[in-house]
Backbone:
């Protein structure tokens, strides 16, 4: 098979993996005529996947052959898709050629499992090794690791790749037993734990090296193990797990394995699918709400149980409200927490106000050292003033004694119904 036809098949097969960001690594470049590539900046050109996602990485599978029978996967063993397989040399050559043409800024490489997890992982590692060692490639490399692979292979992968990721696939072991019986959360989490242990060991070695060389004018720089950390991905909607279960698993992964990101992928029906899978695709808005909730957990101090806890039927069932964002949903269910005084409240309290982001809150804390906060200051900061107004008090804004009921506020910010749209038209 010609290499361009392989590229067409294996790039299309990789589109289902959302965890392809190229952030968080250390800066490298080839200034001075040494090496090839750079991990700095946002790249010159971008590629577009068939599903419309904008990417700046060569995003491919080593092969879409797979010995596993995961019901939700288009590349499962029994699938009738056309198969293809790159050699290690072909992937290396494509990466270098594409980079030199300014098509990409790095490589995202995953694979179906062939022969055995160790054999597949060794092939992925060899691609990264040749790029780094033989060609002095300094661009970004993201390797998808294989759950059952030997720990030494994972350690070697981290020496060459910027980021490692291993898909947890589904939020619960029960779901995994039903749809992917050959995979096990314990094995997946063991691989995550091994990567974290290597990261901790690497960090300690670097601290020790800095202490030893602190008196030296040019301390030796040690190579970092997977400097952009590790990430994972969960499929949403392929089975009946609630958003509360998904967020609980997400929070546990962050706390236990220091993951940089958890990615969510809305399930989309595939050809010749198992009867266990839903016939309709999962709404993309559900994926979006999960990302917003993930942001609240990581940067706003929310507990995962707060986001879906509430008295209304949707929240009580453990599902996020698709009509309003989770931060506003929490505010509407906890009106006793508000109004928040912008001139006196703590940073933690300000972060709970709908319409205020982390940057806006940090700037407000600086401004109020010198003056009273007014609505005009929120406008200048480009904060969500209309969304924030029912929940705040400031120098020139005091909500009336008669609070607007939560139901009316929700109706104000929720998208219009079909009937309302028709009337407006």
Residues:
């Amino acid at each position: 098979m010609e290499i361009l036809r392989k590229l067409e098949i294996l790039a299309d097969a990789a589109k289902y993996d959302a965890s392809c960001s190229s952030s968080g690594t250390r800066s490298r470049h080839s200034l001075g005529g040494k090496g090839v590539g750079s991990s700095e900046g946002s790249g010159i050109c971008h590629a577009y996947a068939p599903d419309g996602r904008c990417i700046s990485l060569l995003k491919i599978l080593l092969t879409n052959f797979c010995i596993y029978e995961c019901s939700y996967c288009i590349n499962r063993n029994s699938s009738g898709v056309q198969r293809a397989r790159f050699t290690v040399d072909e992937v290396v050559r494509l990466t270098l050629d594409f980079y030199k043409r300014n098509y990409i800024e790095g490589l995202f490489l995953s694979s179906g499992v062939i022969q055995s997890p160790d054999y597949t992982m060794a092939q992925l590692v060899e691609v990264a090794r040749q790029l780094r060692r033989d060609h002095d490639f300094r661009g970004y490399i993201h390797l998808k690791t294989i759950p059952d692979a030997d720990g030494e292979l994972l350690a070697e992968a981290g020496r060459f790749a910027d980021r490692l990721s291993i898909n947890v696939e589904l939020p619960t072991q029960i779901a995994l037993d039903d749809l992917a019986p050959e995979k096990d959360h314990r094995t997946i989490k063991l691989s995550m734990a091994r990567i974290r242990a290597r990261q901790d060991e690497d960090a300690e070695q670097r601290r020790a090296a800095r202490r030893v060389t602190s008196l030296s004018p040019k301390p030796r720089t040690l190579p970092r193990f997977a400097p952009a950390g590790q990430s994972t991905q969960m499929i949403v909607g392929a089975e009946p797990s609630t958003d509360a279960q998904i967020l609980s698993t997400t929070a546990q992964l962050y706390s236990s394995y220091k993951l940089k990101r958890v990615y969510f992928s809305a399930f989309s029906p595939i050809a010749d699918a198992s009867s266990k899978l839903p016939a309709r695709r999962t709404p993309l808005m559900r994926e979006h709400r999960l990302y917003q909730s993930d942001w609240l957990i990581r940067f706003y101090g929310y507990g995962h149980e707060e986001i879906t806890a509430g008295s209304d039927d949707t929240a009580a069932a453990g599902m996020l409200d698709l009509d309003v964002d989770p931060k506003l949903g929490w505010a509407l269910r906890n009106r006793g927490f508000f109004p928040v005084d912008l001139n006196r409240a703590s940073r933690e309290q300000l972060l709970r106000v709908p319409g205020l982001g982390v940057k806006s809150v940090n700037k407000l804390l600086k401004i109020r050292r010198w003056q009273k906060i007014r609505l005009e200051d929120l406008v200048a900061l480009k904060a969500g003033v209309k969304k924030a107004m029912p929940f705040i008090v400031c120098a020139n804004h005091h909500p009336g004694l008669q609070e607007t009921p939560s139901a009316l506020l929700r109706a104000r910010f929720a998208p219009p119904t079909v009937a309302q749209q028709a009337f407006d038209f």
Observations:
- The two ends are 54 Å apart (CA to CA).
- The chain is about 40% helix and 10% strand.
- Confidence is low (pLDDT under 50) at residues 39-50, 418-425.
- The longest helix spans residues 185-212.
